[in-house]
Amino acid sequence: MSAFDPVSCSGGRSSSAPIPKTCLLFGLVISLATIAVRPSLASYGTIVGNVDIDGQGIQAVVTAGSTFPVKFNYQIWNDPACPGCVSQIVVGVGNTGQVCAYNGFPDTYPASTEGSVTVNVTAPSTPGTYVLHWTRDRQISCAAAVADYPNGVENEPLGWIYVGATDGAFSVVRHVRTNGKAEDAVQPGAPVTIDLDYTLWNSSACPGCIAQIVVGIDQFVGACVYSAVPGGYPGTSGHATFTMTAPGSTGQFHIQWILDHQFGCFAATGDYPGGQRQDAATIYVDPVNGVDDRGRFPSRLALSAAPNPFRRSTRVDYSLPANGRARITVHDLEGRRLATLVDGDQAAGRYAVQWNGGLDAGGSARPGVYYVRLSLSGVPGQERRTLILSK
Fold it and tell me: Could you give the number of structural domains in the chain?
């Protein structure tokens, strides 16, 4: 193996030149050896923000199979251990990578490379709700990074898309606020003011049909917020505000809606409890002053580990602010997934899991520095990380 050459690994190297193996290998050895003693524990990293999907914000209504623009700002940096490492930012839908938004040699921490980019993404052909993700990778090319998208590092949500077929009936309720908040806690039986936006259209088979959108809290009917003829695609969009009574029991509830086709609101509200309800937001009912009970319903995603450093095992404590698929994984500092501690649907609440150093591939982790990653599906930005040290 040739000696490490800082010039060949520098950011001044041509982007078309291959990455020297010594650069990648040396970067791995140095990061494992030095990151534990660097005060900031800074590694390579990426920040993505100011997301706009098809000009509609972080939630967009698009048609099946259509191509739409996704714009965002990024900040990306390399670890000092490998200043010349090539990096990519890939955008995809669900588990499928689609487009490379960045491909180059970012500045080295504490400096960073910043920019704004617009990429075109294609909606799935099947109607439904999907999450857009971005992921950071270190591959030889954009094509390789797109192919490696499901395994990429820092895989985080960008936003939601609601995919509707132009020839079928479609509805969506979004931008929901309860009592002026994106997520609120109220007392049992208290009045709840709900603001929301809606979009709907009729199928091509019946463009003149009357349609209703009925909104409630779980099985409890709130209001019929729309009853008219929306027409075919692109249909009708609007805003509604109404007040209803919170459930009389405590717990986590969902603001839901149904799309119905009746002669009027009276019949549609009667259909709501047994209809195909879809989730739009979450509300907590708390008997103590109408505020969030931190012990029962955490207000945000949280992750910690103790003891840290550890010898035999460490307890990973985590909090989920909403129902969803929780996933906790352990990675080395190059982003490779080593162990999966949690992977399944869980209700909002506080949990704990032990890690004794066991690896998915068998055996035990060597002494060193690792990071634990917690993510909650379906909620953009819901991810936390923490560094742990095995002795």
Answer: 3
C-alpha span between 42 and 78 (Å, rounded): 9
Domain that holds residue 304: 298-391
Query: Which runs of consecutive H residues, i.e. helices, occur in the chain?
Result: 21-34, 142-147, 265-271
Q: Model confidence over 264-285: pLDDT tens digits?
A: 999 999 999 999 898 888 787 7
The structure's pTM equals 0.59
Neighbour order of strands in the sheet with 236-245 = 170-178, 191-201, 236-245
In the sheet that holds 96-104, the strands lie side by side as 59-63, 153-164, 128-137, 87-93, 96-104
Q: Does residue 164 belong to any structural domain of this protein? A: no
Residue 292 lies in a domain: no
User: In this structure, are residues 177 and 194 in contact, taking their beta carbons and an 8 Å threshold?
Assistant: yes
Which one, of 300, 177, 147, lies nearest residue 240 by Cα?
A: 177
Tokens linked to 296: 């029962």
Edge-to-edge, what's the strand order for the sheet holding 383-390? 337-346, 324-331, 368-376, 383-390
Is residue 368 predicted with pLDDT exceeding 50?
Answer: yes
Q: Which two tokens stand for residue 154?
A: 């820092």
Output the DSSP codes for 180-227: TBSSEEE-TT-EEEEEEEEEEE--TT-TT--EEEEEEETTEEEEEEEE
Residues 315 and 304: their CA atoms lie apart, in Å, by: 8
Tell me whether residue 258 is in a domain: yes
Q: How far apart are CA 234 and CA 199, in angstroms?
A: 9
CA distance 390 to 308: 8
- Do residues 73 and 117 both lie within one domain? yes
28 shares a domain with 148: yes
pLDDT tens figures, 204-226: 999 999 999 999 999 999 999 99
Main-chain dihedrals φ then ψ at residue 375, nearest 5 degrees: -135, 150
Report which DSSP code applies to 150: G
Give the position of tokens 């890690």: 355
